[in-house]
Structure of Nucleotide pyrophosphohydrolase:
Amino acid sequence: MDDRIVNEILEFRDERGWKQYHNPKDLAISLSLEVAELLENFQWSSSEEAVAKRMLSIKEELADVLIYSVLFAEAVGLDLDEIIMEKLSKNSKKYPVEKAFGKKEKYTEL
């Protein structure tokens, strides 16, 4: 993840003295709540309708999810670039292109 963005997020938090409240449990709860708010944009709508009518809210809720993800990673000492690359590597083994291309099944069903 772009260090500039991570630093902006941490600086925003630190300028307000909020780090004291950012323990892993509360950040995980906040992350879950923000994901639920993102999902709320799609309730009772098709994907197309939600995107067409609620893009501003979707954008803001996704930003909240990503910000809380950065804060959570920092709180538990994880490097986002590293864990994302590790997960992509793991997923590439579980979902090789020749088996998974164009399919939605879980790796155990391929």
User: Anything to note?
Assistant: The chain has a mean pLDDT of 97. The radius of gyration is 17 Å.
